[in-house]
Amino acid sequence: MITTLSFFDTILILLLFLSAFFAMLRGFTRETLSILSWAFAALASFVSYTNSETRSFASNLLQPDWLAYSLLVGITFILVLIISAFLSSKISKLVLKSNIGILDRIFGIFFGILRGYILILVFFIASTWFFSDNQPAWLAESIFYDYLESSKDRIYSYLPDNPSELIDSINFDNLGQRININDLGNIGSQ
Fold first, then answer.
1. Using one digit for the tens of pLDDT, what is the confidence trace for 96-110?
2. What are the extents of the domains in the chain?
């Protein structure tokens, strides 16, 4: 069992600490709303791209079509992200100034630790793919190696055995028509 901290271990601890610290400053509400802002912006971009009316509007303004669609998706994403980030900021400031502000910061710390661990885990998985045959000593001798390896194995247990075969079996042709995103607005009126 290795008991000394390596430089790599120190970097991992520093990453966890920084992620927790910044999440504490921002608060759990703002961190969560930030993620939701990105998801909402991505969804709005997808809806604008799959909507035939917005696509025809964009292609009437600009040619070639690929440029019009790219700008449509990009501008939609940026506008929705800016608006939702502004609203998130206002809401989180209200929460931090309220009586539950300290609780919001405490939950922010836990969120930051989880986010930091996920980022470290993504780096670890990428490095094990990159160094699949011969792992460097700084990675293999890390005191966190067993924990990261265990987390990686748990993630792999949820993945399909042959993901490329699964992706190849999906038919992406006419995705917008099959999803029929225009009918989503009619759900509440039925």
1. 888 888 999 999 999
2. 7-117
Helix axes 7-26, 101-130, angle to 10 degrees: 150
As a whole number of angstroms, the distance between CA 20 and CA 13 comes to: 11
Report CA torsion sign: 138, 144, 149, 155: negative
Using the structure block, give the residue that is written with the tokens 């005191």: 143
Tokens, residue 26: 């921002």
DSSP category for residue 183: G
Hey, CA dihedral for 63, 67, 70, 75, is it positive or negative?
negative
Overall residue count recorded for the chain in this entry:
190
Contact 3, 137 (CB under 8 A): no
Q: What is the CA radius of gyration of the chain?
A: 22
Q: What is the DSSP letter of 161?
A: S
Question: What is the four-CA torsion angle of 132, 151, 109, 5, rounded to 10 degrees?
Answer: -60
Summarize pLDDT for 145-161 with one digit per residue, the tens. 888 989 999 988 888 78
CA dist list (Å): 181 to 52, 53, 111, 187 = 10, 12, 33, 11
Provide the 8-state DSSP code for 180. Answer: T
